[in-house]
Amino acid sequence: MPSALILGATGQVGQHVLRELLSSSHFTRVGEYGRRITNQDSITTGKERLEQKTIDFDNVDQAGLKDGKWDVVFITLGTTRGAAGSAEAFERIDREYVLNAARAARTHDPNHFQRVVYVSSGGANPSSPFLYPKSKGLTELGLAKLGYNDTVIFRPGFLIGTNRPKPHPFENILGAITGVLSHVSKSVEINVSTLAKSVVEAGIVGSSGLPKVAEATTGGPGDGRFTVIYNAGAIAMATKD
């Protein structure tokens, strides 16, 4: 029975991924490592299998991530330029923290199969002239080159069903637009709980076991290939039954 580590469990997507992991009988241990951790009073299922630890992402090598010998590493860590305060801070949190933590969680044991599942963003492109999609694209490439046996990337559309303390007015406008477009296309928005279900399933079955409805593709250069699941595929995975 495998173990799972989640980085970014207190975020909008991470909260739901953690809930799915603790509800699943597939994982014997679930680790939640982060700058902040979930209040145990809010956990109703699987609490006995949860290991929590606060860590400093600026000194992540001292956090002992690889000591847990985690089989599947889920990464839902991320931010926005506005929340970070500057472009430099954004890139440090959104890319450097992700890559450094994923690197620190690698055991480098040839007998230990490890998978990493990362929630990126629709439009991620390492060559983009825009900060956000470029950072996501570079993060994807960096993860694929870390040597995990299997790398699965989700590129969701606009996230709905979030519970942000102070939603940005732009999000309300964009949400109204994607809400209309969602009636004609499944590529524009996804509920965070729906995304979480597909993320956890991908972590369980891996690239080779993904259902056809996921419409998974392969991305990355020859020395760092990874599996990509877009918005419509994530919705289909979560609703296929």
TrEMBL record:
What Pfam families does its record include? NAD_binding_10 (PF13460)
UniProt subcellular location: Mitochondrion outer membrane
- InterPro entries, A to Z: NAD(P)-bd_dom (IPR016040), NAD(P)-bd_dom_sf (IPR036291)
- What kind of membrane protein is this, topologically? Peripheral membrane protein
Q: Which GO terms describe its cellular component?
A: mitochondrial outer membrane
Start and end residues of each NAD(P)-binding domain? 8-129
Q: What Gene Ontology terms for biological process does this UniProt record contain?
A: import into nucleus
From what superkingdom does this record's organism come? Eukaryota
* Principal subcellular localization: mitochondrion
Entry's family note: Belongs to the FMP52 family.
- PANTHER family listed in its UniProt record: OXIDOREDUCTASE HTATIP2
Q: Any idea what this protein is called?
A: NAD(P)-binding domain-containing protein
